[in-house]
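Researcher: Structure for this, please.
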Amino acid sequence: MKINKFKVTGSDGFKLSDFSTKDTLGFESRESVQEALEKNILEIAELQSKLYAEGKTAVLIIFQAMDAAGKDGAINHVMRGVNTQGVDVHSFKQPSAEELSHDYLWRAVKALPERGKIGIFNRSYYEDVLIVKVHKLYEKLNVPDRCKDKDVIKRRYKQIKQFEDYLWENGIVTVKFFLNISKETQRKRFLERIDNKDKNWKFSDADIKERQFWDDYQEAYQSAIAATSTERSPWYIIPADKKWFSRALISNVLLEVMRDIDPKYPTISAKQEEMLKDSKKKLTKEE
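Model: Predicted structure, token format:
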């Protein structure tokens, strides 16, 4: 797949509206990408095993989206082949009282993956330039007035960009996905959640309330992605109207990220090789 078509690295002129929510690169059905998806999952799992064994690099995967875009399903499908010992998933919900008493990056820093692991953020510190921007929640923070003036969001863009540079310089590769869903597809998925009793638990009145701010959220994503995309920490705008395609595309991106890292199983010294030979002899004699 031509993943660079969906990659944003900070070049001028980025417009979210230029990215179709329906794009499938010409693939027509789930079946047309299923084989490639399965192969990707297997190779990702093998590379993740090497990443864990090597212990040099960590990968931070960020998923952001409007409600019902398919974040949970994408995580479950694409990561189902990896060893859970080497993957940590964190879902960031409304901040607790303790989290609000710290800076907005504090809870994310605590959840960063250690070297050798993949960390997945289902939502992230980007909420602090998305919902916080749309509803001006920064005005309610118990901080000095100088920390919540009209430029607070612009400063956070800069802070986030610097933070992700810091992660890169400390061995953490950050890859960011925005699952780009249309308003009409979201409406249909909300109706499905209401009509299907098994999915009722996924729906709340807050979903409808937030939907009223659709245009504000699109502008917030547009600004955040434009301000924080870099070569080191790019955004990928994933068409999300077709779940089967978004999952296949995400698997392709992750595979390329892992290939670029190119982790290796550790090699052993000559002394360790002799120890293995000696251990093999002892175990063979027990037969």
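Researcher: Any notable elements?
Model: Strands lie at 7-8, 58-65, 87-91, 118-122, 172-180, 235-239. The longest helix spans residues 30-54.
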